[in-house]
Each structure stands twice: as structure tokens, then as C-alpha cells.
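Re: that chain you flagged

S.,

Sorry for the slow reply, it's been a week of failed gels. I finally had a moment to sit down with the sequence you sent. For the record, here it is as I used it:
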Amino acid sequence: MVPVMAKSMAGATAYRCTECGWQTSKWVGRCGECQAWSTVTEVAAANGARFRTVSAHRAVSAHSIVPSTPAVPIANVDAADACARPTGMDELDRVLGGGLVPGAVLLLAGEPGVGKSTLLLEAGALVAESGPVLYVTGEESAAQVKLRADRIGALHERLYLAAETDLDAVLGHVADVSPRLLIIDSVQTIAAAGVDGVPGGVTQVREVAAALTAVAKERGLATILVGHVTKDGSVAGPRTLEHLVDVVLHFDGDRHSQLRMVRAVKNRYGPTDEVGCFDLGEMGLIGLPDPSGLFLSTHAEPVPGTCVTVTLEGRRPLPAEVQALVAATSLEIPRRTTSGLDGSRVGMVLAVLQRRSGLKLGKHDVYAATVGGVRLTEPSVDLAVAIALASSASNLSVPSGTVAVGEVGLAGEVRRVPGLARRLAEAERMGFRRAVVPAGSGALPSPGNGGAGTLEVREVADVHQALGVVLGG
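Prediction finished late last night. Pasting the C-alpha cells below so you have them in one place:
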């Protein structure tokens, strides 16, 4: 019998996921590795064969490669080069873990108009005090960036500006300036010659980011890449972009509010539970080392439908006010509108109030919002939402100086939350006199945390008991 020969792969096609690189011989709608939809695209099998040939060649000749530096015992490694250098912006340094590490690559993502370029211009001007900084803009002209720098006072003789969209030109500027910090605004606008795809495409973004990362590691050059975000707020482009960089920062805020926050999603050199707060004004960004009080409103007298809670943004406790309005409606389907709160959690709290506390809200419109544009997604705000809703529905005011912290379960129980001691210490520092917390927490404010022992703490087991303590029955 004549053996059956394998079919030639010349001219055949293969399919590869643009997110994780998973390959298959047939097209599928969903990647079998990362489970992403509509990311599997057709590639030439010859290219795959070429890449496999190169990889095999490298594997065969690996024994002849001379290491650039000899391996040394880990105890003898000098860690001075990995020490963070402050940028001069205290709130940014707080998030980074002390500052910028030489050779580190940062990815700063945020919605359009949130203030990313303003933040980086100010940081670049401050870093330029100790060394040259190169700011590469691919979205605006050099004159437009200069006007913004004039307005916010971010001018320095060692802050160099270049308007480029070609990767080779950017690397040429790096060789000429030899900067201490490189800022690319943004990585989606830079294109690499000889690479398929349009600027901002998956292939281009991956290649550009890989090239800039290699240069950063080789030169010990701290690099900040500005990235776009998708509609759901995640970083645009391939998922490998977040794996290539060392730090991923999210810069967000309500465009109708002046508050801006920087959060670390990934940080190889510092914590990921810190938050930097800024006030965005006409003259640029101003750090807010003590943002407490920004999310509270002032009332001459107690108003039904308001309750104050203390949320944790990273390690930082922030008092915030929750407002609710419950009004009768003639509509068959009542409105449920939220702003700054998780709509699904507000709906759950409404169901618990109706089932466990006897409040009849089925024929009422419900509106719930936060003050100051802050977004509260932490489960610890459930108790404050429940009290605000019950206060509005019963037209009873929450006594002034009261805060409520706790997660509400479906059985109506009030569950414990982390960091309660820090929350209560901050509430006492802000002048609150009574706190409603879950039963069994055992955490009281201490004078060492800023409290003077004047805060009355009331523990409650369920939401019905909490309403009785706060609203009086």
C-alpha cells in the first residue's frame, strides 16, 4: 500500500487570536484560550511556518549565544537601580509606590478629556528639574501642547517636545535627547514601518509597545504610554499590552466634576490599593492630600432621604453622602434611576427593604445618587443606601452627625466590612458623633488614628434594627 502523504501547507490558511495568539486551523467565533469573542482572524500559514522555523533555529543555536552579563548570586545583586525616584507630584507618587523606577514602563489609560495629557505635562515639567524629559505627542500638534503647557505653567527648558507618529523617528529623538523620562501620547497613534495594520490596530500596538519596552529596559529609561479605553472602560488594544508593561494606571473622573482619581490596576514596584486624588481646574491639576468633605453636602436642617457613609478608596477612607428620593407614580413600571451607585445593588437593597422591613415601594419611583460625582461601588455603602431610601419613603430625617457602614445581605442581615477601624477614625475626625455598624465588628476608633473617643458606635444585626436605631421605629 502506498502511504498517504500529508497535504502541503503551502497556500493554506490558519487562524490566530489577536488577543492571546492562540492558533487554530479553522475559524471560530470565540477564542479557545482567552474566551474572547470575534478576535480570531485569518493569517497566512506560511508566516506561521516562518516563525516556527526562526524559533527552531534559535533553539538549535542557543548553545552558542554568549550571555551579556554573567549570572551572580541574588544576594550580590545591586538593587539601587530599582529604587523609585519621586516625580514631584505627591498624589501620583503615592499610587506609584514612591515614584518612577528607571526602566519601568507605565500604561496610563483614561477616557478622552479626563486630563491625561495635563497630568503628564505637569509631571514631565517636575521631573525635568533633575534631568531631560521627552514628550512625544501623536494626537496634537506641538503648538497645541505648548498652549496647554503655558496655561498650566508646565514649562521647563529641559522638557523637550516632539510631534511624531513614526516609531523610528521617536527612537531617533530618544537617541538625540537621552531623556530621563519618555512620555508617549498616545501609543495608539504611533506606527512601526514594515508592520502590517493601521496605527492603533492590534498588530501595530503590540509591536510599538514591545519596541518601546525593549528600549526602556536597555537604557534604564522610565517610559509612560498613554492608552485609549473602550466603551466599558477597559484598556483598548490587545490584552498583551497590559502584560508587556510594568504598571497600569487608570485615570478617571466624572467630566461634570473637578475630581480626578488615579488608581493602580497593576504595579510591579508598589501597591495596587492606593488612590491619588486631584482637583482639575483652569490652571491644571492640584493634588488633594485630604479629600474628605468633598462628597458631603451642607444642610441647614436635616433633610429626609440623605445618609452619610465612609467608603475606602484604596487605603484611604472617604466620607460620602448618599441621597435618595422616593415618590409615588402613576406609571405601571416605576422608574429606578441611579447616579454614582451600582444600579443592581440599589435594586437588591430595595427588594430587601420591601421583604424584610415591610416598606411598600412597588408603586413609587426611586432615585438614588451620590454627592460630588464620586462613584460608590463598594458593598459597604448598602446600609447607607437602605437608610436613605427608608428615610425618604417615611419622610423621616436621619439625625445629623450620623454615619452608616455595612453590607446588606438578601436575608436582611448587616454584614461586616473590612477596614472598619479606619472608617470610624475618619468619621470621628470629620466631626460625626454616631456610627451604625454591623454587629460583632469589635472595631472602635482609637485616639492614635485621629479619634478622641467621642464617637458613639451602635452595632446592628439586620437592616430592620438599623432603621429602628436611626429613624426611631
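What I noticed first: The chain has three domains: 13-54, 81-287, 306-471.

Talk soon,
D.
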